[in-house]
Design brief:
By secondary structure, the protein is α/β, with parallel strands linked by helices. The protein is 43% helix and 13% strand. Strand 3, helix 5 and strand 4 form a beta-alpha-beta unit. The structure holds 3-methyl-2-oxobutanoic acid.
Amino acid sequence: MSNTNIKPVTVKTFQKMKENNEKISMLTAYDFPTAKYIDEAGIDSILVGDSVGMTVLGYDSTINVTLDDMLTFTKAVTRAVKRALVIADMPFMTYHVSKERTIINAGKLIQAGAKAVKLEGASDFILDEVNHLVNSGINVVGHLGFTPQYINTIGGYFIQGKSYENTIKLFESAKKLQESGVFAIVLEMVPEESAKYISENLSVPTIGIGAGKYCDGQVLVIDDILGKKTDNFHLPKFVKQYANIKEVMKNAIEQYSKEVKEGSFPSLEYTFNLTKEERDKLNDCIVK
Ligand code: KIV
């Protein structure tokens, strides 16, 4: 497909897809080649998630990720993407200080090429921030249910909205986010029935991760579906692993190491050589 035939996915596309009952597909990406493959596969949206803290940077949560980190990864992803809607996570504490700081920080992610930013929670403060961003022309995605940036206050990886009362509370938060202007809401680790109720009663699409099949779209972390995770992390129940990249990588690295040690790499096939004439001259030459 030539570039001119590619119709980029926009915020309006998301809304239309919800109205037409068309599922929205989303994956995370952090680097140029992965983003390119995801885009070429026709995935609707790419999230430059702060999960990069765990998948790429080796932290044990998203808390350590900085705005500079996110800017680097967002630029790499947006350079590769022609169709998918790129959303960048606002990292921990980059939208909590003041409206001015929030706008400056979100603006940097948009200038890095993202078409929208995502932030977690729905406190009065956050709702106000969302409103301010949207009024300044910045598209915002909300994130409710399990919100990884609040790991220290939640106290662990717990399913959210597990009772009728908590489902209604979650829905009320989602409704407030919608009224503040978000164009989509990520629902993480929420029972399927609760996510269904929330999705059916919102006008903006929900994107589920561990929230069952009734959400308007689905998102997963690319490293999880490719089987790239290191031994430090267990795979959550909601992840379906579609490949085992870790095994492929480990086998290739071990084979390379073996061949270097035994001297079988590089063989002739991977070597530059002089012509016979130049080789003979070199062989005859005596070092003085
Ligand atoms: O950072 C991330 O990858 C996310 C997804 C888990 C939704 O926020």
